[in-house]
Automatic annotation (TrEMBL):
Annotated organism of origin: Streptosporangium brasiliense
Keywords in alphabetical order: FAD, Flavoprotein, Oxidoreductase
InterPro entries: AcylCo_DH-like_C, AcylCo_DH/oxidase_C, AcylCoA_DH/ox_N, AcylCoA_DH/ox_N_sf, AcylCoA_DH/oxidase_NM_dom_sf
Protein name: Alkylation response protein AidB-like acyl-CoA dehydrogenase
Similarity comment text for this entry: Belongs to the acyl-CoA dehydrogenase family.
């Protein structure tokens, strides 16, 4: 699947920003490019685009292992608030999310043990993507609450921090209906799959560049048949993963859960394989702190657990097929 002209221009704008302004704060990235509000309706300061455009940004962020809260804010929270249907909540939260002044995250029932009673939220989310605004799907409703404590974890992938959020009977407000919980999670899987494609593509690029430059026995190592086969297999793997991620980003209705599960399974394993082969082609250099190869391997390993491992996604596919 090819990108439209507008999507290609978006990709180039994001890539240029990330190359020219490495380390720029989230607020600057979101405000200068307007990408935080891609999925936010125009009446709330966004662009009113769809997941196909959001996935373009996700892929570019995955290439450079950007630590921005894009997945939690622009993918999960924006869709959760939009589909919850509470216009007051949309007016209060979406404009700030669109201009980068507010970050937000979403907790799902499978990832948190929470109860909502008498206007109070109680429970714990042990491994959450942290943000200023915390939304949670509880008992069929979307709830907003301020955690009573936040405890950061020391994680394998330091570019995507995780936090334990504790809610000790804290005041909470209903911000809408929670019927779209499954859809929001599937879009999160789709956004993550796009990030994984970006990471896998970058691994292939760096492995190919090293194979051209590194000489052994008087020849570039890329001229050896075994290395050629590795690189050819990686190219097929990355392009297949990109097709799966793009299909999920363009899916809608009943097709989204199936396409998201396919992308979640295939792209996760593709990134793990690409990251591992990148290290193998680089040899000892690939695991040094100065090289990006080991950081991609850590991100790929951590990503494999974020919305469930590949086996869980395949289990969903089997259930959908009646197997």
């Amino acid at each position: 699947m090819s990108l439209t002209q507008e999507q290609s221009e978006l990709r180039e704008a994001v890539r240029s920003f990330l190359v020219e302004r490495p380390g720029a704060p989230w607020s600057r990235f979101a405000a200068e490019l307007g990408v935080a509000g891609l999925a936010v309706p125009e009446e709330y300061g966004g662009a009113g685009c769809g997941m196909a455009e959001v996935a373009v940004v996700c892929e570019e962020l995955g290439r450079v292992l950007a630590p921005y809260p894009y997945l939690s804010t622009a993918v999960l929270a924006a869709e959760a608030i939009r589909t919850a249907g509470d216009r007051c909540a949309m007016a209060r939260l979406l404009p700030g999310m669109a201009d980068g002044s507010i970050t937000a995250t979403v907790l799902f029932p499978d990832d948190a043990d929470l109860t909502f009673s008498d206007g109070k939220l109680t429970g714990t989310a042990r491994y959450a993507l942290d943000a200023e605004v915390v939304l949670a799907y509880v008992d069929g409703e979307l709830i907003e609450a301020v955690p009573s404590s936040r405890t950061p974890h020391t994680t394998l992938d330091q570019t995507r921090p995780l936090t334990t959020l504790v809610f000790d009977a804290v005041p909470a407000v209903r911000v809408g209906d929670g019927a779209a919980c499954g859809r929001v999670r599937d879009l999160g899987i789709t956004g993550l799959a796009a990030e994984q494609v970006g990471g896998a593509a970058r691994c292939l690029e760096t492995a190919l560049a090293h194979a051209r430059q590194r000489h052994q026995f008087g020849r570039p190592i890329g001229s050896f048949q075994a290395v050629k086969h590795k690189l050819a297999d990686l190219l097929l793997l990355v392009e297949s993963a990109r097709s799966a991620a793009q299909a999920a980003a363009r899916a809608s209705g009943d097709d989204l859960p199936v396409q998201a599960a396919i992308a979640g399974s295939y792209c996760t394993e593709a990134y793990l394989t690409a990251a591992g082969e990148n290290i193998q082609i680089h040899g000892g250099t690939g695991v040094t702190w100065e090289h990006s190869a080991h950081r991609h391997f850590k991100r790929a390993t951590a990503d494999a657990q974020l919305f469930g491992p590949p086996q869980a996604h395949r289990g969903r596919l089997a259930a959908a097929a009646g197997l």
